Task: inverse folding
């Protein structure tokens, strides 16, 4: 584990900030794109949106506001679990929403009208979300609130990250259901399938997010001030 950690640190030093920012933004956009693909599957809300809708039912706040408030609450939990919060964590909170709105606005993705085409669309969307998650976590600028919780849970329990995501999303689905959130086939598939897709991508890329040391804002300022990693290329 120590050798792998040192290898990742070396890779981190060799990658310029420009490339890492591109990876982060591309990953966040793919997360948004994949989310819209799952919506177009037309098989029900995804686990977190079931939870957000449930909060809306109980409190009357909008789903978008619920999304943001839940993200802020989870971010506090991440800090208590000593996860490193950085540029990627904040960009995750601020950019995925607008990226999602943009993809919806383009209206290039068709809505499925049968369960079997919807299921294929759902799996495709989950794979896109999984690859986007891999890219932006790999940039080492800090994972988003929900993914940081996944990584922190995996680190504490020693279970694989994908399995921890399944447990987290199954829990929020259940909570959302009790608050009146809409649960469908897509919700159930998403609750278990997204974690499996993510774990598959991590295994295919030989990526271990629990061994990543993310760069927080203090690290970012120090490295930029000292000129470390600026303008360098992958070796």
Result:
């Amino acid at each position: 584990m120590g050798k792998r950690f040192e290898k990742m640190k070396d890779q981190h030093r060799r990658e310029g900030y420009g490339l890492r920012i591109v990876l982060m933004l591309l990953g966040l956009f793919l997360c948004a794109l994949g989310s819209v693909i799952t919506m177009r599957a037309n098989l029900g809300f995804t686990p977190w949106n079931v939870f957000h809708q449930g909060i809306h039912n109980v409190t009357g706040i909008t789903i978008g506001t619920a999304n943001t408030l839940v993200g802020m609450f989870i971010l506090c939990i991440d800090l208590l679990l000593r996860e490193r919060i950085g540029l990627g964590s904040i960009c995750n909170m601020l950019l995925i929403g607008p990226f999602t709105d943009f993809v919806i606005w383009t209206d290039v993705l068709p809505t499925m009208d049968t369960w079997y085409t919807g299921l294929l669309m759902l799996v495709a969307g989950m794979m896109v979300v999984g690859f986007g998650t891999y890219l932006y976590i790999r940039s080492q600028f800090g994972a988003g609130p929900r993914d940081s919780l996944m990584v922190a849970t995996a680190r504490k329990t020693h279970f694989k990250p994908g399995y921890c995501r399944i447990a987290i999303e199954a829990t929020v689905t259940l909570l959302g259901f009790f608050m009146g959130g809409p649960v469908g086939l897509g919700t159930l598939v998403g609750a278990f399938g997204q974690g499996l897709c993510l774990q598959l991508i991590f295994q295919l890329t030989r990526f271990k997010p629990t061994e990543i040391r993310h760069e927080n804002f203090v690290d970012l300022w120090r490295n930029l001030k000292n000129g470390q990693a600026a303008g360098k290329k992958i070796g």
